[in-house]
Design a protein that fits this description.
This protein is α/β, with parallel strands linked by helices. The protein has helices spanning 37-49, 68-77, 93-102, 115-121, 126-139, 158-165, 195-205, 278-282, 289-292, 301-305, 309-312, 317-324, and strands at residues 7-11, 54-58, 81-86, 106-110, 144-150, 172-177, 212-215, 248-251, 256-258, 271-272. It is built from twelve helices and ten strands. It has a ten-stranded mixed sheet.
Length: 337
């Protein structure tokens, strides 16, 4: 097979203790008929069969699914590295014990700004619990990172958030752009910010940060700082295009498979694991065509005439689609003047 599956983002439940203003999956209640424990075991086995190396487990809120430990254990038994993304609200001593016994690679906590800003978009008291979870995880010897989802307001608070995070013991901080899908599509969040200002912040602060600092794949592309702003200071960490369906997939809590779990639209579903095995979906010649059959002639807008368009392939498919409705045109490329 031409394409090797390396990583998966797996939403094991849509149940969540929050209903954040910019939640891309509009989490809150579990979906009807979410995959059973036995079905999740099968998914874990099928991921291993295809050689998947890493799974990022998300919700909703992962810890609201009662059998999350059993699912993680099955993945680990298959030699798959697991990390969990959480809002940090439900942490307890028993949870820490479970995480340590499972040998989770890391836990990423969502933190989107100083207390007032974070709580406004999530829930009152959520900031304090998230920070407490970060410090507790670090003290327990569990590698912990932070993911911040940027919008027009909190992007201006990055230096202040850095001062909060610098002494927490995290090993990495990732900045990603808020995409107008799910709750964020309802117009309650201004998602616009200047990516050049974020890149300048990262380029300046990464030199002194006691942790890795970088931007996600939906921020960029190919400014002079490109080789060093993706959590790697080698100067050679260049964005090479969306990996959805090429080396990565997303799976939701009822078994739908898509190239990326941020491509939260039925049009991107390639199949369901209750109807077809993952290997069959992955190896289908017609699957993930938006990337597997990409050609630079498909680029539109400014990307079409950019000399690097063929290299970055127009940026993040999900962000492009939800912001502008076009897959091959980056709406806020930082190279534009």
């Amino acid at each position: 097979m031409k394409y090797q599956l390396k990583q998966c983002v797996w939403e094991i439940t849509l149940a969540c203790c929050f209903s954040c203003k910019y939640c891309g999956s509009a989490g809150g209640r579990a979906r009807e008929n979410e995959l059973t424990t036995e079905e999740c075991y099968s998914v874990a086995d099928q991921l291993a069969e295809l050689g998947c190396r890493r799974v990022s487990m998300i919700g909703g809120e992962v810890f609201m699914r009662r059998d999350w430990k059993e699912i993680v254990a099955r993945l680990c038994e298959n030699g798959i590295v697991v990390n969990i993304i959480t809002n940090g609200f439900l942490f307890s001593e028993s949870l820490l014990t479970d995480l340590k016994s499972l040998k989770i690679e890391s836990v990423a906590v969502s933190l989107d700004g100083p207390r007032e800003v974070h709580d406004r978009y999530r829930q009152e008291g959520s900031y304090d619990r998230a920070v407490r979870a970060i410090k507790t995880l670090h003290a327990a010897g569990i590698p912990v990172s932070v993911i911040s989802t940027l919008n027009a307001e909190n992007a201006t608070h990055l230096p202040e958030l850095y001062d909060i995070l610098k002494d927490t013991g995290i090993f990495a901080w990732q900045l990603q752009a808020c995409s107008p899908m799910g709750n964020a599509a309802n117009g309650g969040v201004d998602i616009a910010f200047d990516p050049r200002e974020v890149i300048t912040f990262v380029s300046e602060y990464m030199k002194k940060a006691p942790f890795m600092l970088g931007v996600a794949d939906n921020i960029g592309y190919f400014t002079p700082e490109e080789g060093s702003i993706r959590g790697n200071m080698s100067g050679k960490a260049y964005f090479t295009g969306c990996r959805a369906g090429l080396s990565a997939i997303g799976i939701d809590s009822v078994g739908n498979v898509r190239g990326c779990e941020s491509m939260y639209d039925e049009r991107f579903n390639e199949g369901n694991l209750r109807e077809r095995r993952l290997k069959e979906i992955w190896e289908d010649e017609g699957a993930f065509a938006y990337n597997r059959k990409f050609d630079k002639s498909m680029l539109t807008g400014a990307c079409k005439t950019c000399e690097l368009g063929g290299w970055c392939a127009g940026g993040c498919r999900s962000y492009n689609y939800f912001v502008r409705g076009r897959l091959y045109e980056a709406p806020r490329c930082a190279r534009r003047k």
